[in-house]
Amino acid sequence: MHETQKKILQLSSSYNLSNLKLREIGKLIGSPHPQVVKHHLEQLKKKGFLKVEPTSGDISAVKPGEISSKRLVSIPILGNANCGEATMFAEEQLSGYLKISTSILLQNLLAKTKSLFAVKAYGESMNRSSIATNMGMTKNIEEGDYVIVDTAVGSPKTGDYVLSVIDGSANIKKFVNDTRNNQVALISESSLDLPPIYIDSSMNYLINGKVVQVIKAPKYK
């Protein structure tokens, strides 16, 4: 995130930005150009970091897991995750908010929206996965889909889909705890012939959470 945007967000915790002129905001954050301030304000609104109340016009920062008056849940987007080889760097930087209707989000997730985050999937190694939906059906994970991850699930079980970070690279895989061979296997479910990733306790890896829902990328054709 741009440094000016960080300063504006920090300012929004102490001020109602709608009561300040662009020049006043600029003075408070050390940016003397009103048009620069305006640009970054618009970017923060576009990315979902700031919200404008429709009746009062008040401007304030969006909180993770917040449910708006229009029944939209704001889920933070934390970078990207690979559905292929472990090559995509796991940047845990807030890049915006995914707005999801409460009728689309799985009902059992509505009570714990603050523990959720989203990543955008890249690659096709999970295009035959089966993630539960509201209708009792399943969805796979394809490139461009948003994957919702729950950080409050605890230790993963065999068969769970997880977001793992291995040597700084994020991956979405199926978790298998192979106790007989004293190893963990991260399995691809794909139309491609891809080998598992095998992990032992000496490796630098982290399970960030369990995949709990997939928001499919729109299809235009």
List key phrases describing it.
2 domains, elongated, Arc Repressor Mutant, subunit A, 3 helices, 14% helix
Q: Any guess at the CATH architecture of the largest domain? A: Ribbon
> Which superfamily, in CATH terms, is the homologous superfamily of the largest domain?
Umud Fragment, subunit A
Shape type: elongated
CATH fold name of the largest domain: Umud Fragment, subunit A
Protein name: Peptidase S24/S26A/S26B/S26C domain-containing protein
Domain Peptidase S24/S26A/S26B/S26C: 76-212
Organism: candidate division WWE3 bacterium
InterPro entries: LexA-like, LexA/Signal_pep-like_sf, LexA_repressor, Peptidase_S24_S26A/B/C
SSE topology sketch:
Layout: H1 3-12, H2 22-29, H3 34-47, E1 50-52, E2 59-61, E3 72-82, E4 94-101, E5 116-122, E6 131-132, E7 138-139, E8 146-150, E9 161-166, E10 169-178, E11 183-187, E12 197-199, E13 205-215
Protein name: Peptidase S24/S26A/S26B/S26C domain-containing protein
InterPro entries: LexA-like, LexA/Signal_pep-like_sf, LexA_repressor, Peptidase_S24_S26A/B/C
Pfam family, one: Peptidase_S24
Brief rundown of the structure:
Helices cover 14% and strands 34% of the residues. Helix 1 (3-12) crosses helix 3 (34-47) and helix 2 crosses helix 3 (34-47).
Explained architecture:
This protein is an alpha+beta fold. It folds into two domains: 3-61, Arc Repressor Mutant, subunit A; 72-215, Umud Fragment, subunit A (Ribbon), CATH 2.10.109.10. Helices cover 14% and strands 34% of the residues. The chain is built from three helices and 13 strands. It has helices at 3-12, 22-29, 34-47, and strands spanning 50-52, 59-61, 72-82, 94-101, 116-122, 131-132, 138-139, 146-150, 161-166, 169-178, 183-187, 197-199, 205-215. The strands form three sheets. A nine-stranded mixed β-sheet has the order 4-3-5-8-13-9-10-11-12, with no helix packed on it. Strands 1-2 form a two-stranded antiparallel ribbon. It has a two-stranded antiparallel sheet with strand order 6-7. A hairpin with a 5-residue loop joins strand 6 and strand 7 (138-139). It is elongated, with a radius of gyration of 20 Å. The model is unreliable at 84-91 (pLDDT under 50).
